[in-house]
Design brief:
single chain, four-stranded antiparallel β-sheet
């Protein structure tokens, strides 16, 4: 029994050392009904951080299925850059290669693609970050979830 406990402690320490949670880390996912993202659906994230302003890595995660018909995903990200100003960035995520093989990790028909957009993204606590798809289609099939990670 002691050997099992020792192995558990070692594995736990290895996992925790790989990614230390800091007081300004934040993650959240939005799930789409029926795995369909409508053009009019803007996803809003409101991170609450320990600091009022932090410079942290910004990562976007997309969970999709084989039903997604495209190899890329165009997004628009709106975020505050000061007291009254809001910046809008256009982002292209390449989800598959030229032969249709998904870059994301997963098993079965569901994949998660993760891309770090900025290693030092300035985020303001309790200020909204908005994501929307800007593909030329009313509703995107196969998009199950979209999420952001700030920090680790």
């Amino acid at each position: 029994m002691n050997r099992t406990a020792a192995i558990f402690v070692i594995v736990t320490m290895a996992v925790l050392s790989a990614c230390r949670l800091r007081h300004n880390d934040y993650s959240d996912f939005h799930t789409f009904d029926n795995a369909r993202w409508a053009f009019t659906d803007t996803v809003t994230f409101t991170p609450e951080l320990a600091d009022s302003v932090a410079d942290v890595p910004l990562t976007i995660c997309v969970r999709h299925s084989n039903a997604y018909p495209y190899s890329n995903l165009w997004l628009e990200l709106q975020y505050p850059t000061g007291d009254t100003t809001v910046q809008t960035d256009t982002i292209e995520l390449t989800l598959a290669d030229d032969f249709g093989r998904w870059y994301g990790k997963g098993s079965g028909v569901s994949y998660q693609f993760t891309d770090t957009l900025s290693p030092r993204f300035r985020v303001f606590s309790k200020q909204k970050l908005r994501l929307r798809n800007i593909m030329r289609r009313d509703t995107l099939p196969g998009i199950e979830q979209i999420g952001i990670l700030l920090g680790c």
